[in-house]
Amino acid sequence: MSKTFKNTLQQIASEPKLLTNGLFILSRMDKAALETFKKVWPGIPVERRRIIMQELLEITEVNFAVDFDPVFLLGMGDEDAEVRMTAIKGLWENESLTLIRPLIHLLKTDEATIAREAAATALGKFIYLKELEEIDWDEGTLAEEALLETIYHATEEIDVRRRAVEALGFSSDARVTKIIESAYYDDNDKMRISAIFAMGRNADARWIPQVIEELDNREIELRFEAVRACGELEAKDAVTKLISLIEEDPDLEVQEMAIWSLGRIGGDLAREALEACLESDDETLAMAAQDSLDELNLFDDALMLYDFDDEDLMEFLDDDFDSVNGKDGEKDHFH
User: Fold this and answer.
1) Which residue among 68, 241, 251, 297 is buried most deeply as judged by most CB within 10 Å?
2) How far is CA 69 from CA 53, 63, 95, 175, in A?
3) CA gap 67, 51 in Å, rounded
4) Percent of the chain with pLDDT over 70
5) pTM for this structure?
6) What is the pLDDT of residues 153-195, one digit of tens each?
7) Is the pLDDT of residue 20 over 80?
8) What is the rounded CA–CA span in Å between residue 130 and residue 114?
């Protein structure tokens, strides 16, 4: 164990101002460093542990070269609920099946709502991978059944159940259609927001009439999720309305999401609208339009250059899974 690592670890734990650059020493720790970290971590004050875990999460969202997974795995067992929640979120890119059972355990037994919420959300990744047949079907089913059980658990907090609805949005299980529909007609607006979010994930055209109808909803969050769902469902009938939202909606995030959705839907009318947005006086909207056009052009170029068979095309379409799940902070403002 180098003296440099020990000194940096002490600074991380105790200095008044946490320097983000110092946290990179926690990436890809060797066995000796990890053992030292495990001993030091519980003794760090809880507020500092929360800050460290949040900083590590933010680093992973912009820097794909780092690997803080051992720290996040340790954080899942932290005595503080906020640390546990952030640690679970930090493992968003980890697709190891060994995570399924610990996440299910937290979903079923953790005393903190925020930790159970995070666990439910994290299990959605494995439902998606199951549907793509990229993981063992039985392992994926474990996650699926745990989420279904959570939804059917009448005394569970609504914030946990709504995250389970969202996570199950990826599922092709026949029960999920009824679950989404029931959530959509729930009296609780949060559950309705989650239902619309799940509709987009579900990739079933049956939901298009509902999400288009919600584009006129007075509630910003509901409207935002409906706009996103239109893009995910590639709802061509929504293009005209989405264009009007870009021009008229009072909320910037809704306008940005409408631009993103037009990029997903494509077509001549959508392209013309995006090109018009490039001239917007609002730099944020102009940049969002450029991003959407870049993706649209990339997709069109790929279709021209390659002779896709059905399997290759589906793989290409699934490459933007991260943005569909709101991992891009701009697309996930409300959710």
Assistant:
1) 68
2) 11, 13, 11, 34
3) 18
4) 88
5) 0.87
6) 989 999 999 999 999 999 999 999 999 999 999 999 999 999 9
7) yes
8) 25
Handedness of CA 2, 52, 143, 209 (dihedral sign): negative
Q: Please indicate whether residue 84 or residue 320 has the higher confidence score (pLDDT).
A: 84
Residues 6+ apart with CB under 8 A from 127: 140, 143, 144, 147, 167, 168, 170, 171
CA distances from 237 to 209, 224, 243, 247 (A): 9, 17, 11, 18
Residue with tokens 């919600």: 214
Q: Which residues of 15-38 are buried (b: 16+ CB within 10 A; e: fewer)?
A: eeeeeeebbebbbebeeebeeebe
Residues in the chain: 335
Q: What string of H, E and C letters represents the secondary structure of 214-264?
A: HHHCCCHHHHHHHHHHHHHCCCHHHHHHHHHHHHHCCCHHHHHHHHHHHHH
